[in-house]
Specification:
The protein has helices at 55-66, 90-95, 98-104, 107-123, 136-146, 150-156, 174-183, 203-206, 212-232; strands spanning 19-23, 26-31, 41-46, 71-74, 128-133, 161-168, 191-200. The protein is of the alpha/beta class. The protein has one domain (4-232): 3-Layer(aba) Sandwich (Rossmann fold), CATH 3.40.50.1820. Helix 1 (55-66) links the parallel strand 3 (41-46) and strand 4. Helix 4 (107-123) packs across helix 5 (136-146). The longest helix is centred in the last third of the chain and has 21 residues, at 212-232. It is globular and about 45 Å long. The mean pLDDT is 91.
Length: 233
């Protein structure tokens, strides 16, 4: 996470409608569909660095719930979400000890915590899981399958994969996007990589909705993900 876009963004307006629950000792934001839904299915929402503090993340969880999926967003940073003040302040961004913060909240640390959440949900009757991840959370999606090894994922994973990519992303630049297309060519479980021009890293959560290209990207990425879950979850 050495990209400045990881720690910048725009706040979105709205009032979250979900609730916080303790699941296996992990604080989770839970968004429940308003009507009948399949209780054997659940979506794990893995946040960016701003975690459950950022209303944008909670609103997205609610949006997925309105489309029929019960959503669980675990607290990845144990009360140490990146301060939202860094959106507007280079000085606040400069204060963050990124290496120390990442060490305290490593994927390996969170993997054990989140497996406890999944085990608890299985005991409640959930049998199928989908996952959607953003920035830091995107890496965790791969970790939940194969400890971040994308080549092993492509060789042996049974989980279909959707990637919503964009034109300005130091974490996942065009050369990596091209390599992924080659790597997942013929991937039997299912693979799709969408591309949104005029968008930067973080667009699907923290994009500026006053920019038509970014709005199109954010809404397009969400639509793609809902449709992916409808087919594969």
């Amino acid at each position: 996470m050495d990209c400045e876009h990881c720690f910048q963004g725009v706040r979105h307006e709205g009032t979250p409608t979900g609730a916080f629950e303790d699941i296996a000792g992990v604080k989770c934001y839970v968004a429940t569909p308003p009507g009948a839904h399949d209780a054997t299915k659940a979506v794990l929402f893995l946040c960016d660095a701003f975690g459950l503090t950022l209303t944008n993340n909670l609103l997205l969880c609610d949006d997925f719930a309105r489309n029929g999926f019960k959503v669980y967003a675990p607290d990845e940073f144990e009360g140490e979400d990146v301060p939202i003040a860094s959106f507007d302040s280079p000085e606040e961004r400069a204060k963050l000890d990124r290496e120390g913060w990442l060490a305290r909240h490593s994927p390996a640390h969170n993997l054990a915590r989140f497996k406890g959440v999944l085990d608890a949900l299985r005991r409640q009757g959930v049998t199928r899981f989908g996952a959607t991840g953003y920035c830091y959370g995107g890496r965790l999606v791969f970790d939940l399958v194969f400890a971040g090894e994308i080549h092993k994922y492509a060789r042996t994973a049974a989980a279909p994969l959707l990637i919503n990519a964009c034109s300005d992303d130091r974490q996942y630049p065009r050369e990596k996007q091209d390599a992924a297309r080659v790597l997942f060519d013929g991937f039997a479980p299912g693979f799709r990589q969408a591309y949104f021009a005029g968008c930067t890293h973080g667009f699907a959560v923290r994009g500026d909705m006053s920019d038509p290209k970014v709005r199109e990207g954010k809404e397009g990425a969400f639509k793609n993900t809902v449709e992916w879950f409808e087919v594969h979850l």
